[in-house]
Amino acid sequence: MIPPQRLAAAPIVVAGNQSYDLPAVGHGEDADHETATLSERVRLDEGLAATISGVPGVAHVVPDVSFHADVLADTGGSSVPGTQAGHSWVSAELAPYRLTDGVAPIREGEVVLDSATAGRIGAHAGSKTDIAVRGGVHSYLVTGIADAGRRMAGDAVFFSPAEAGGLRSAAGQVDAFGVQLAPGADVTAVSAQIATAVHDRHAVTLTGDARGSAEFARAAGDGELLIILAAVFGGLAAQVAMFVVASTLTLSVQQRRREVAMLRAIGATPRQLSRMITGESMIIGALGTALAIVPGMLLGDWLFGRLTGFGVIQPVLKFEQGFYPVVAAAVVGLSSAWGAAFVAARYAGRTRPVEAMRETAIPTRWLTPTRLWLGVSSLIGAVALAYLTITVVDGPLAASTAGPAVTLVATAVALFAPGLTRLLVGVVRRPIRALGGLPGYLASLNARARWMPMAGAVTPIMLATGLAIFMLYFQTTEVAVAEKQYSDSLLADAVVTSATGDLPPDLVAKVQQAPGVGGATAFVTSKGYNEKPSDSTQDEDGVDLTGVTADGIAQAWGSIVATGKLDDLHGTTIALPADLAQRLGVGVGAKIVMRLGDGSLATLDVVATLRTTAASASALMPAETLAPHTAAGAPDRILVMAKPGTGEAELLAGLRSQVGGADGVQVAGREALTKAFVAEVQANAWVNYLIVGLLLVYAAISTVNTLVMATADRRREFGLQRLIGSTRGQVLRMMAVEAGIVAAIGVFLGTLVAASMLVPFSAAVSDSPVPSGPLWIYLVILGLAVVLTVVATCATAWFTLRTRPSPSTLAPE
């Protein structure tokens, strides 16, 4: 949900329609229609106010415009912390803002500051302040201080209506209209009439919380991202939950084998036993689900706060948990419990009555047809998802398929865990006996005899370590590959930016005249969609567009031109990647119609085609043509290429002497661009870090629970050892060695599970099968797994051994 802030006092808001119907693929009834969200703000013609005002029930219409305006904290050009935006004073009533000091701005050079901004710089009515706006820094008279009485996502700077009209990004256009109603007018009825009046003007009528999307157009995309992330995390959490609960329940049923066998001996049928186990599990599952609702809500709020804090989603989104998410979570939790109980109940139903007479009955037959079929099916599914991840999915959300793929591999390993554990016990048994002394000898004997119960303890360790290794190294590999690709494709030797976010219009020409500069180009990015001609491969991601300066880009990127000339990028022209031009069936001299990011249609002449490389993955347009159709309305940086033989230090010195310091202009080397890019990628990486952290906490709890259950069940065995002469220390040392064996097998299998996806993924994206990332990550995971296993096992054994053994200890329970 995106609640309105600056537009909260307007019952109805009319804004540009951000949805765009892609050109249909196919013909007639078979045509396939897809909808995309336009990447830039869709603005409206200010003349639309007259149409809206004519609707019955409308009192008056207030246009709203926003543009970049940074209040400077000092004469050095540093911005006040926070985000400021410029507006016309006429839109102040939409928040509503109220003057707490001074008067409204009515002339050019006058402003009213938001109380938060004024407090940061100590401004008051009558003082002066410097504001960077539209590429220049100007001194303004503060005529008043305003406060809206609520917390805003950003601070506001209000200009006089006349000056705001000249500072807005697009002349004659507004961002939205706030509609104030006449007394007694019905919001729903008036909204419907306005929607009818503006239906052919690419506008939408918004009420309630939907009004927030008019203020924060890009936040809607964050909401979609949040839904995807919730689905990814929920799916993985459900798989892990069912996984570990099934393992724990199966171990519990194994420990109750005498009780289950006795019930079979007195006439209980397998179906009755299955219903008993399932019923017990569902009672515990229902109790656990009920207890988890409140902590789950608190955890959801905390997780949402982390996502906004790391910049993954905008903080303007409002976190809400209604009735349906709680019901869905309860259904998932109970379904996981039922699925796990079903697996455990099958084991109980196969128990034979004769096992009631055995003292140490440990099953040896584990590979049933069902287990074999499920294991092989999991491997086939993992291979399919792995292929999809490597060949199709791109970006930080690749974990949406890679994560389930690894989970399926882990599922197959868990299903075959008894056989794998028995095999690996045979491998490590001799070294343990040779190096472990008497505790090692006893531990090796126990491992050889108890390989089936040991497999139940190995499984959660394998799951935890496998997920941790995969998720962390998957992310570090993605970041390293993205950084390398960006660095390799970056042809600029320096970058010129502004601390205020705006570049003066004539700055490119000044940069080109600096000593050592071989070429300079403005740089602005956006997205567009092919209208005519179009092709079936176009999706909601559209075409990446880059705005450049023809002279500068021709010198730097001339080598990637396949046909045509980049010098001709002036006016309404475009240079297309060669593969896109081939799909569209166009070449140099052709005309194409493109829907730009703000919804505008542009007829463009194709002046060049580009060889498809990392540097030419986007189409090129003149910056002066593309920039007005972006939210900022201007380029945000200038890329500078050095003359042959000019070093970076010499180039930077020449640039600083020419343009450095003017209106907050900053000069930096190419590493600044790479660092900014990596910081953006790392912000997305926090999504996976949070997911893996929460999953690992759950897996760790399950691991400890399984180890405690498995160790506590050996009370009679410990008592017998004590009665025949073993000391408490000897038993504890034996258990420490056993815990080490369990941890070693679990970590080894977890490493194989992680490598099953990491190796092919790394080979596909980096031409190296070795994933990128520091070795210490693996060592820390290994160490935590060993420590957790040893501590959980030995602590439980220590508590069990506190009771002095006696012959009664050996009596069957």
Automatic annotation (TrEMBL):
Q: Which residues cross the membrane?
A: 225-253, 281-303, 323-348, 372-393, 405-425, 454-474, 686-710, 731-755, 775-801
Q: What Gene Ontology cellular component terms go with this record?
A: plasma membrane
Q: Which UniProt keywords apply?
A: Cell membrane, Membrane, Transmembrane, Transmembrane helix
Task: Look up the signal peptide feature and give its range.
Answer: none
UniProt domain ABC3 transporter permease C-terminal: residue ranges: 232-351, 690-802
Kindly give the membrane topology term recorded for this protein.
Answer: Multi-pass membrane protein
Quote the InterPro entries the UniProt record gives: ABC3_permease_C (IPR003838), Macrolide_Exporter_MacB (IPR050250)
Keyword hit for Flavoprotein: no
Q: Where in the cell is it found?
A: Cell membrane
Q: What is its main location?
A: membrane
Regions annotated as coiled coil: none
Query: Could you cite one Gene Ontology molecular function of this protein?
Result: transmembrane transporter activity
PANTHER family the record matches: ABC TRANSPORTER PERMEASE YTRF (PTHR30572:SF4), MEMBRANE COMPONENT OF TRANSPORTER-RELATED (PTHR30572)
Protein family (similarity comment): Belongs to the ABC-4 integral membrane protein family.
The protein in question is named ABC transporter permease
